[in-house]
Backbone:
């Protein structure tokens, strides 16, 4: 039979676990939000609808492999892959996938794609 001290310890532990669950839910941890997402840069030009550039950190060793991993995990296909001047990819993405990608390790920032013209 548990002692009063053991019962109190179990009650306190249970209360802390419940409190932690409530805090994480309130912070959005269960919905996939992260604490510090990569920056998002909206375009100042003529936006390409639902098209984004996802740029990786410079120290990502294999940008093509990371792109393939993210395609598989999030269910999209990159339209362009970058590995020389910058590392990353371009893709047509829904808003929830953009949010999820901003929380992936190795992502430096996400930028809206825009049309570019030369006069």
Residues:
């Amino acid at each position: 039979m548990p002692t009063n001290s053991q019962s109190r310890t179990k009650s306190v532990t249970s209360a802390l676990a419940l409190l932690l669950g409530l805090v994480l839910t309130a912070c959005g941890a269960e919905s996939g939000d992260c604490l510090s997402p990569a920056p998002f840069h909206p375009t100042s030009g003529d936006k390409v609808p639902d098209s984004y550039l996802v740029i990786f950190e410079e120290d990502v060793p294999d940008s093509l492999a990371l792109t393939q991993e993210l395609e598989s995990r999030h269910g999209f296909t990159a339209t362009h892959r970058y590995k020389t001047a910058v590392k990353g990819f371009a893709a047509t993405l829904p808003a929830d996938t953009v949010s999820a990608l901003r929380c992936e390790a190795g992502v430096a920032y996400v930028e809206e794609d825009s049309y570019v013209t030369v006069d």
Observations:
- The longest strand covers residues 47-56.
- The first helix runs from residue 4 to 27.
